[in-house]
Amino acid sequence: MALFPTYKRNGIRPIQAEGVKVKDEQGKEYLDFTSGLGVCNLGHAHPQVKKALQQQMDAVWHVSNLFEIPLQERVAERLAQLSGLDFAFFCNSGAEANEAAIKLARRYAQVVRGIKAPQIISFHSSFHGRTLATLTATGQEKVKTGFDPLPPGFHYATFNDIDDLQARIGTDTAAVLLELVQGEGGVRPADMAFVQAVEAECRQRDILLIVDEVQTGMGRTGDVFAFQRWGIQPDIVTLAKGLGNGFPIGALLGRGGLEKVFSAGSHGSTFGGNPLAMAVADAVLDCLTTPGFLTESRALGEHLGQLLQTRLEPLPGIRSVRGLGWMWGVELERPVAPLLHALAQKGLLATPAGEKVLRLLPPVVTTKAQVEQAVNLIEETWLELEEVVTDGSVSGV
Ligand SMILES: Cc1ncc(COP(=O)(O)O)c(C=O)c1O
């Protein structure tokens, strides 16, 4: 195989996908509770999004940012209105959006606050991407191994510990970079009081609060943006995954005042915000803002969480169930790999978060019946595996 072995793949070869269902080469159908890693929030090949992309393919694909792109202006305006922020910059992935946020924060600190070597504080167990700056901002050693020398200017505080953050803030702190639910780090929601204290601390010291909504945004936690659930107003928000529902896209949103430091020539992207991506994002926003859509969807996501809590938490070998909206983690006492494998065999696709957490990221359009089917499958499969372990007939499961 002529591919770098950078991924540990699961052996499934999907060739078709629609809504919550994925079909493989053998014609086997799966319920997809991965959404392509939190991307296809509206389900695969959503008809409205597909139609928008098809129509745009007949118009114009790509012209570059040398040109004015009306759809880009429109999506920027919509995102600004929805987020309470003022400006958007478009790129192609979550890492690129965070890279842009880091650059913007550094430049703001230098130009506006006169800080020569601006520092950024992120959190242990966070995940912000795989570029050199974003892997450095990521609070997990495993993504950094072998990539020295890493860029300077990054520090790590303990998630959900305001005292630790305060102790690390100095006069050269430019920004705090925060996930409201640590996704890759094990589906860990931030405490309400912690987040509000972080916001207050940032406001008081003119430190930029960057909220990484690459995974939590676009309906994943029940609102367009997760920060709305925490009742805060970040200075910068980064987006990707769900904004394109499968079409590569990334976005940086920033408050008024920041546009002065991101002047012409200071940052850019060849593909970022091209008409195809913008047509898709526009359609995604249409769906998410349809009256009643997110209210109904959020209630079903919470139903999934309640079922997981009541049915799985009491079972032996299960530590806890946590999350919100359509983002749930089931922490096990053992590695999650055998459970993922057994679930896939029974037709349910899920993803790991770390070694021992089963992460469920179903499309936000998953039906009640599909939610219940998935919980039944997880319960049944876990009990079967548990029996094998307690029997002692197989060890190391
Ligand atoms: C919170 C968060 N930030 C950033 C990224 C990186 O996004 P991408 O893989 O699109 O570069 C991810 C990806 O999982 C993520 O979950």
Description:
The chain has 397 residues and is an alpha/beta fold. It folds into two domains: 47-288, Type I PLP-dependent aspartate aminotransferase-like (Major domain) (Aspartate Aminotransferase, domain 2, 3-Layer(aba) Sandwich), CATH 3.40.640.10; 292-391, Aspartate Aminotransferase, domain 1 (Alpha-Beta Complex), CATH 3.90.1150. 38% of the residues lie in helices and 18% in strands. It contains 13 helices and 17 strands. The strands form four sheets. It has a seven-stranded mixed sheet with strand order 4-12-11-10-7-5-6, with helices on both faces. Strands 1-2-3-15 form a four-stranded mixed sheet. Helix 2 packs antiparallel against helix 10, helix 3 (70-83) runs parallel beside helix 10 (275-288) and helix 11 (293-312) runs parallel beside helix 13 (368-391). The mean pLDDT is 97. The structure holds pyridoxal-5'-phosphate. Pyridoxal-5'-phosphate binds next to helix 4. Pyridoxal-5'-phosphate (PLP) is lined by residues 93-95, 98, 127-129, 179, 183-184, 212, 214-215, 240.
Number of domains: 2
Distance between the termini: 29 Å
Number of DSSP strands? 17
Query: In percent, how helical is the residue content?
Result: 25-40%
Question: DSSP strand (E) fraction?
Answer: 15-25%
The low-pLDDT segments are: none
* Cofactors, ions and other ligands in the entry: pyridoxal-5'-phosphate
Largest sheet composition: 7 strands, mixed
CATH superfamily of the largest domain: Type I PLP-dependent aspartate aminotransferase-like (Major domain)
Rounded average pLDDT: 97
CATH fold node name of the largest domain: Aspartate Aminotransferase, domain 2
**CATH classification class of the largest domain:** Alpha Beta
CATH architecture of the largest domain: 3-Layer(aba) Sandwich
Q: Which word captures the global form?
A: globular
Strand arrangement, major sheet? 4-12-11-10-7-5-6
Radius of gyration: 21 Å
* Secondary-structure element string: EEEHHHEHEHEHEEEHEHEHEHHEEHEEEH
